[in-house]
Amino acid sequence: MPLATVSRQQTPTLELAAELGHIRDLVFVRDLLRERGAPAAELHECDAVVAAARARLATSAKEASAPHAAAA
């Protein structure tokens, strides 16, 4: 398989992994803020950011898997 083809196929996987890592970081920060006594409003803002990132991840995963579903 040509290198360019492998790179294109792996790119969605790498992007999904990066998005998942970003979500983990967001959750870590939110938990750290909670431990340090952050106000509820700030924690709700963090929850909203995490929820939006999870929604983007879900959309990206669906888009990345679409070619595989069409081939099946």
3D architecture notes:
- This protein is mostly helical.
- It has one domain (3-71).
- The protein has helices at residues 3-35, 40-71.
- α1 packs antiparallel against α2 (40-71).
- The chain is elongated, with a radius of gyration of 17 Å.
- 0% of the residues are buried.
Q: How far is the N terminus from the C terminus?
A: 20 Å
The oligomerization state is: single chain
Mean pLDDT: 86
Strand content: under 5%
Largest sheet: none
Helix content: over 70%
The total beta strand count reads: 0
Q: How many helical elements?
A: 2
Number of self-contained structural domains: 1
Tell me, briefly, the overall form: elongated
Radius of gyration: 17 Å
Element pattern in H and E:
HH
Q: Provide the structure class.
A: mainly alpha
Give the low-confidence spans. none
Which helices and strands appear, and what pairs or packs with what?
Layout: H1 3-35, H2 40-71
Helix pairs in contact: 1-2
What's the quick description here?
With 72 residues, the protein is mainly alpha-helical. The chain is built from 2 helices and no strands.
